[in-house]
Amino acid sequence: MDFKRKRRPWRLLRLIQALIVLGLILGATALWVARPVPLPDDHFAGLTGDAARGETVFWASGCASCHAEEGAEGDARLILTGGRQFVSDFGTFVAPNISSDPVYGIGGWTVQDLGNAVLRGVAPDGRHYYPAFPYASYARMTPQDLVDLHAFMATLPASNRPNEGHDLAMPFAFRPGIGLWKRFVAHDEGWVVTDALSPQEKRGRYLAEGLAHCGECHTPRTALGGLDRSRWFAGAPNPSGEGRIPNISPALLRWSEEDLVAYFTYGLTPDFDSAGGSMTDVIHNLARLPESDRAAIAAYLQKVRPVQ
Q: Which keywords, in A-to-Z order, does the entry hold (predicted)?
């Protein structure tokens, strides 16, 4: 009996050792699954950027809405100095300087660097970007559009404003966890609207679901923070905590295509109300697109499934 009692501590020690080894294996596996996955090295091979086309990509993607100084107008919206704060349930995100400055901005980035950031949410140093940067939607951007965007952004003014860090609480400040979120929650599931579409409607889908990332605000999220694709464009709480982002599915938004194009151009609704809040920035962007693109988005919105 005395001998058996002496063996019990050793059994307990072996159990603890086994649990530690198992924990290390699981942790290493999680880190491997959560690792940043950059684009293939030849993703942009053979492509040449066109700054004029890149300007359309720039405005469609809403870069100035987050990265220009708040309240900037006219050409000042092209100075992507960063610094704007975005308050959320996870903490406060601060937009970085993405001007052409090679030290404080992204002037030293290659096309591959920009592609990894915009399409994969991976920084040049290999860190995950937080999904306040809507790369899950931008992932639909074509390689040519990304190369054109890089060419246009290289023509923009430089700003030497230093970047500020985000103010996030744990566990949200733990960047490797973003890799797991990318892998299991925000992975690419293809287009939301998969009905047969005309070329105009396909262009509208590309703009609305991809570049303009409309679903990031207008679609409610799941418990894990992914977009609830079953309620596409059904409206969602405003991330700032003030009110709600409206339902823009045909269940509630019954404007004609002409009404929508006018709204995207001038910010005026059919009953002569005007756009407010963050939508004013969106209108600034859409108004700079060719009218054919605004009409394409309007045509696409008619194809979205109505959701109450």
A: Heme, Iron, Membrane, Metal-binding, Transmembrane, Transmembrane helix
The one-letter amino acid at 116 = N
The residue whose two tokens read 């703009």 is: 207
- Phi and psi at 91, nearest 5°, equal 135, -165
The token pair that represents 157 in the structure block = 């003014």
The amino acid sitting at 26 is L
Structural tokens at position 270 = 């059919």
- d(C-alpha 206, C-alpha 139), whole Å: 11
Q: Is 21 left (phi over 0), alpha (psi -120 to 50) or beta?
A: alpha
At position 3, the amino acid (one-letter code) is F
- Decide if 152 contacts 63 (C-beta within 8 A): no
Structure token pair of residue 12: 């307990």
Q: Using a cut of 0.90, tell me whether the model's pTM lies above it.
A: no
Tokens of residue 175, six digits: 């960047």
According to DSSP, residue 192 is labeled S
Four-point Cα dihedral 78, 82, 85, 90, nearest 10 = 120
∠ at Cα 262 (304, 138), nearest 5°?
50
168 three-class SS: strand
Q: What does the pLDDT profile of the chain (308 residues) look like in tens digits?
A: 554 555 567 676 666 666 666 665 665 565 656 678 889 999 999 999 999 999 999 999 999 999 998 888 888 899 999 988 887 777 788 999 999 999 999 999 999 999 999 999 999 999 999 888 999 999 999 999 999 999 999 999 999 999 888 877 777 667 777 888 887 777 777 899 999 999 999 999 999 999 999 999 999 988 888 899 999 999 998 876 677 889 999 998 889 999 999 999 998 888 878 777 788 889 999 999 999 999 999 999 999 999 98
Residues 106 and 98: beta-carbon distance below 8 Å: yes
Residue spans of alpha helices (H) in the chain: 2-33, 51-61, 63-67, 111-120, 135-138, 143-153, 176-184, 199-205, 215-218, 257-266, 279-286, 291-301
Cis before residue 36, ω within 30 degrees of 0?
A: no
